Amino acid sequence: MVSRLLLANDLIIRLFDVVASRMVRKFEDHTDRVTDMCFSEDGKWLLSSSVDGSLRVWHVIVARQIDALHVDVSVTALSLSPNMDILATSHVDQNGVYLWVNQSMFFGSFKGRFLCKWKASCEC
């Protein structure tokens, strides 16, 4: 399946099969504009961030949210490492990059929770 994501003003993320020309999944729960999205390397997870301060992890196959974080400062960009153990985020008016570890990779089954964070400062 060749897919494409679409965002509209209704705050719903839609996944389309471009070959079949139809919507195949819908992800909704953000309460403000979505700022970034990325897929996991295996295509099973979709991560999205929003101005509402949320960072959501979606299971693509079942179109269900499997995790969510709320932060004080809106996420402007995110990137997931290929082996899905580290998530990097940048935030509004913040210098540096936040790194989040996927605890399920190290401490057993936490359903993919990204709970521990470190801030690696950068001089930009």
Topology:
Layout: E1 3-7, E2 12-17, E3 22-28, E4 34-39, E5 45-50, E6 54-59, E7 64-70, E8 75-80, E9 86-91, E10 97-102, E11 114-120
Antiparallel strand pairs: 1-2, 2-3, 4-5, 5-6, 6-7, 8-9, 9-10, 10-11
**C-alpha termini separation:** 40 Å
Percent range for β-strand residues: over 45%
Based on the structure given, which CATH architecture is correct?
Beta Barrel
Gross morphology: globular
Number of structural units classed as domains: 1
Strand order of the largest sheet: 4-5-6-7
CATH class bucket: Mainly Beta
Could you state the order of secondary-structure elements as H and E? EEEEEEEEEEE
- Major beta sheet summary: 4 strands, antiparallel
Regions with pLDDT < 50 over 5+ consecutive residues? 115-124
With helices defined by DSSP (H or I, 4 residues minimum), what is the helix count? 0
- Which structural class is indicated by helix and strand composition? mainly beta
The overall average pLDDT, rounded, is 80
Determine Rg (CA atoms, Å).
15 Å
User: CATH topology, anyone?
Assistant: Thrombin, subunit H
Number of strands: 11
What portion of residues is helical? under 10%
Oligomer: single chain
Provide structural commentary.
Pfam families: Beta-prop_WDR36-Utp21_2nd. The chain has no helices and 11 strands. β6 (54-59) and β7 (64-70) form a beta hairpin. It has a single domain, classed as Thrombin, subunit H (Beta Barrel), CATH 2.40.10. 0% of the residues lie in helices and 55% in strands. The strands form 3 sheets. It has a 4-stranded antiparallel sheet, with no helix packed on it. A 4-stranded antiparallel sheet has the order 8-9-10-11, with no helix packed on it. The protein has a 3-stranded antiparallel sheet with strand order 1-2-3, with no helix packed on it.
